[in-house]
Amino acid sequence: MRIAIPLAGDQVAPHVGHCRTYLIADVEDKQVVRSVEVANPGHGPGGPPPFFLADQGVDLVLAWGIPPHARELFRSRGVDYILGCNGKAADVLQDYLNGTLKLTDEGLEGGGGCHCH
């Protein structure tokens, strides 16, 4: 399984499409076997971030918020997501793998909608 987390430093970024980088982790048997930080190409060539992450082979995105239009793009490319992830990205990933991930909807208006468009 390949998991992506939008980053703001070492924290989960508040917006999946406007982060500078993504943590992409390959997971086998609930263990991270490889991880890499990749630059977000933005909304330009190669399509929006949901297409970029799908093209990277991502199966699941752990994010704080994803706007409705991006959710549809993820679904159309077979990428699942979990909303409400908050805190240090490494901790969020490990908590997900341990089955102890705690989600928050604090500040998530409209279920993770984007208020910048």
Automatic annotation (TrEMBL):
Origin species: Symbiobacterium terraclitae
Q: What is this protein called?
A: Fe-Mo cluster-binding NifX family protein
Q: Which PANTHER family match?
A: DINITROGENASE IRON-MOLYBDENUM COFACTOR PROTEIN-RELATED (PTHR42983), IRON-MOLYBDENUM PROTEIN (PTHR42983:SF1)
Checking Pfam families in the record gives: Nitro_FeMo-Co
Q: Where is the Dinitrogenase iron-molybdenum cofactor biosynthesis domain?
A: 9-97
Instruction: Tell me which SUPFAM superfamilies the record gives.
Output: Nitrogenase accessory factor-like
In terms of Gene3D superfamilies, this protein maps to: Dinitrogenase iron-molybdenum cofactor biosynthesis domain
